[in-house]
């Protein structure tokens, strides 16, 4: 486990929270989206953000593109496979009474399909699954700001767990400590407060914190 300062073993504070927000695809599930192919199919420039590009299209074209994207992502959601340690981590946090949220650039209804596919549909309240239609999508801090207000908690007391730059940028913008998982290297130096191998290592750190023992 590494922190963002010097690559040394990070303190157990990564697990010192009762308010957790998770990205979905690539964080709680194995990554399956082929974004380059999606861009080609939708006519999105290679270096453009897909959602931002669709927002610039004429209404009818945007609606058609979003419909195609929903259909494609629905098929992926049905076949979702949990990432290593994800189910055990969420179940442990739920059993301990932690507040749990999903912040995804996917649609809420598709996130619910994904959660059902990996056996976690009972762990997240509908109102605490925040997708691209509920707030401005990541990297906007709006989603984390929503959770901080809903849970009446300081952003610094929360954790944002993700696998992508957008997750870390969102966390930084909202003042929420970010936890990077499922990446072999620190692709975005200085962005994550902590980096861990996967959700299994995060669960180990959290259990150590609960037990009052540094990992």
Describe this structure in words.
The protein has helices spanning 35-42, 50-55, 59-78, 86-95, 108-117, 142-151, 165-174, 199-211; strands spanning 2-3, 19-22, 99-103, 129-130, 159-162, 178-180, 194-195. The protein is of the alpha/beta class and 215 residues long. The chain has a seven-stranded mixed sheet, sandwiched between helices. α7 (165-174) links the parallel β5 (159-162) and β6 (178-180). Mean pLDDT is 90; it is low at 4-11.
Mean pLDDT: 90
Q: Strand share of the residues?
A: 5-15%
Q: How many strands in all?
A: 7
Distance between the termini: 9 Å
Overall radius of gyration: 17 Å
Quick one: biggest sheet? 7 strands, mixed
Number of helices: 8
Structural class: alpha/beta
Shape: globular
> Could you state the order of secondary-structure elements as H and E?
EEHHHHEHEHEHEEH
Instruction: Point out poorly predicted stretches.
Output: 4-11
Helix content: 40-55%
Strand line-up of the largest beta sheet:
1-7-6-5-2-3-4
In short:
By secondary structure, the chain is α/β, with parallel strands linked by helices. 40% of the residues lie in helices and 10% in strands.
